[in-house]
Amino acid sequence: MKLNFNSMTRGVVLVLALFLCNFTFAQRTITGTVTDAETGETLIGANVLVVGTSTGTITDFDGTYSLNVSEDATALEFSYTGYGSQRIEIGSQTVIDIAMSAGQQLEEVVVVGYGSQKEKEITSSVTSVSAEEFNQGPITDPAQLLQGKVAGLQVYNRGGDPNGRSVIRLRGISTVGANTEPLVVVDGIIGASLDNVDPNDIESVTVLKDGSAAAIYGSRGSAGVILVTTRTGQKGQGVQFSYNGQLGASTAFNSVPVMSAEEFVAAGGTDLGSQTNWTDEVTRTGITNVHSLSASGGSGNTNYRVSGNYRNVDGILNNSGFEQFNGRVNLSTKAFNDRVSLDFNSSFTNRNSDYGFNEALRYAVLYNPTAPVFGKDAPFPFASDQYGGYFETLGLFDSFNPVSIIEQNRNQGKRTEVTYGARLGYRITDNLEVSGRVAQQKTTLANRAYYPTTSLFRGNATSPTRKGRADFYDEITSFQLYEGYATYVNDIGSRSNLRVTAGYSYQQNNFESTYLSLGDFPNNIQDYGNLIQTSQDLQNAGFIQANSAVSPDEKIIAFFARANFSFDDAIFLNASVRREGSTKLGEDNRWGIFPALGVGVDLNRYLNFNRVDLLKVRLGYGVTGSLPGPNGLSQPIRQVVNGADGSVSTELIRAANPDLKWEEKAELNFGVEFGMDRFTATLDLYNRDISDFILERTVDAAVFGVDRRFENAGRLTTQGAELTLGYDVVNSSKVSWNTGVVLSTYKTTLEEYVIPQEIRANLGAPGQNGTNLIRVAEGEEIGQIWGPVYAGVGENGAPLLSDINGDGQVIGDQGNALNPEADFQVLGNGIPDLEFGWTNQLRLGEWSVNAFFRGALGHSLVNTFRAFYEPRISSQSSYNFVNTELVEEGLTAAQFSSLYVEKADFFKLDNLTISRSFSFAKDSAIRGLTVSLTGQNLFILTNYTGTDPEPALVDYGSADNGGEVDFSNPDVLSPGIDRRYNYFASRTFTLGVNLNF
């Protein structure tokens, strides 16, 4: 079956429009007032829903409501945050007033794919986090709001680079050959960018963790799904304004311990006559400003919210940080007796980044501490003008003045992102509603890097005649989404309820980029616009590089359906199926089917344990897929060959594979949910089986005409457990204390792979670029750090290695790392055995304290700074020495071993916020004021001697002698390496003000 999208796409909106004709139904209007049972005060924004339908409204500023219902409507359900929900039979009533009681357990409604469900009815592993539970402080990446808050969700931004993106994993890696991060859905827009959502605009986040929950999203849900709901206005209220301001200061929390100038000279280092703390020279106190202003309100059937957010963030590394403006509009309205609904949202982000150069931190560690910053301060004649006035240790490999790197060179970028989405719904009857959604997103990226003729770093070091370098990179990505679906809701008898959703989805992605690199400039022109004109020799192939890329239309079409059935408010069934096709796959295998089934039972409904509110068991099974990143992997690749006689021909370099198909993940999840008075607990046990990775393999050239093509191969399994505990220690009107813990553990085994075993992740230069650190083997756990075992110092200063197998000889050279007779073993694992977060929320009258602790146990890190610069190598007397408590006296040779693999267990006070709320008179223009003080990364307990003990879940390879890191190609099979180009961790204090008026 071919993928023909055009006619179907055009028809979606037309089909929906047909439903907007006039129907006449027998209706009546019910009105009433909702109040607090104890105080008698009216409740604003209470939900009123016609049972068994999607028809509903909320109470206005006076606590009143008005709702049109059909003559066959049987009951209304009233709910309000912090109050017990109530069901009232309608009968012949036209006025229904209700008094609600606080303190009862509320049946929360949770957003899921293409709709919402009562939390009690969910049969999958789903966790929802509200804005009140988010991490506090000047968050630069929205993913950090969830760090440590959801069991099984890993969010790590090692070092805290303000321009760095967090590594996000849900229940470990979901693939080795495609996308490993969860799908993001913002206000129903599949694949929307999380970078285009300001943290202050997020109302809640729901994480679909297991396959039965994510299967409704098909090929893009294999790594899990993160559903983001942004803030909206409330009906029945006037215009309300809210201002949120933050002022933060960040300093380096930790750095690599190195020798002072005096210690360095005493250890035999080359004395250049100065005393310089290079880390101090390239770091600073980073100042952060955040200002957010929003206006929200509602009138009649319309509500709205408009916000503007400004962020100016300085990193602790000089000349690093960003300035960003974000705007968002959310609008909802209803018409024609609430039968027609329209939701519209749009966002715009403009971000100017100064990426700086993380390498300045690396060279601040290793640069000679007796070297001066400027050439004029050198103890010998120095042509300082040649290097912009900076001192350089010429002739040394991998040695650059860190101040010169960060001050002379420029590394900047601009990203502009625009997203809009609209959902149109029409309620044909009280039981049936059809919806259509249209969304588009466009991202423009322009990065510029410039290295003047006076800079020795990058390019000029390896090509001194180049005379400067300028890099231009431009990228445009766009996304389109068209969806139509219908939802049917109905009561079956008095004890059962059925909800069915079915629809169609069309997605299209496009990408294009250009890259240009120039050199040979007559002088140091800082204007990017003049660089091309001033390059002296554009014809010299050594000084110019250019390439471009344009993707075909990347299309996905899908048909999906889901049914939710509840019986006796205690037995719940959920089933879904999605049939999906993609242009990225082989011509013969473009379509896949992704089913899911879940069942849940509230046992307490029948066992009726004393004081137990909920005892639900659930079982879910779902299949999801994963697409390759690049296009055209199923197609043949040819290259042009110029013959010696002047002829031109082509030759095949990669064979086609029309059978290339999805990677597939099948997941089984068992869960138990328990609630009793003030205590809640949720336990999930899961098993994942992931197969058919999309990998380039060596094949038989006699069969395929060439020895390379992409195929489906390999399998890995993951078993894990997650536990969430919550307890209200104190719960009174003036004092409350709530504490909660989330814990998760998992183990991933590579069952089958294209190579039975290999070692990967090169340590790098100088001197150890033949050393690989990670072993990957079939049938074994992922994350093995592999190497010889350190046994002491030999007479000649070389490391002694252990005879692990006891055969009387030590084979510890890298060339024999996979030799069964060699003395190598697992030295640690880069993936934690246990990760946890501990939240404490304390309220004392108008004061509140939020303390959040986080930690990980059982993982190790390769400390690459120690591996290179801790041995006292006499030939490296111009490089500083790392000086940790683990230094081995007398060791004068560098060779990787267990000596440099450290346990990185940690426990930290990640976030502490103390706030004070101020109340005002009812007639005051100010509705509320809250002042807060937040500290991030306040203390950490760990034995790791590096800058940051947090797990390194991916590896980007080594970068030496000023080389560049390719962050676009993460190696997910090589966790556990603390590279020398990582950003340093920081501690931040923030003063915050929230004003509502």
TrEMBL record:
It is a multi-pass membrane protein. The keyword Lipid metabolism does not apply. It holds the Pfam family TonB_dep_Rec_b-barrel. GO terms for cellular component: cell outer membrane. Residues 409-772 form the TonB-dependent receptor-like beta-barrel domain. Its main location: membrane. This is SusC/RagA family TonB-linked outer membrane protein. Residues 119-225 form the TonB-dependent receptor plug domain. Keywords: Cell outer membrane, Membrane, Signal, TonB box, Transmembrane, Transmembrane beta strand, Transport. It comes from the Bacteria. The keyword Cell division does not apply. Residues 1-26 form the signal peptide. InterPro entries: Beta-barrel_TonB, Beta-barrel_TonB_sf, CarboxyPept-like_regulatory, Plug_dom, Plug_dom_sf, TonB-dep_OMP_SusC/RagA, TonB-dep_OMP_SusC/RagA_CS, TonB-dep_rcpt-like. Belongs to the TonB-dependent receptor family. It is found in: Cell outer membrane.
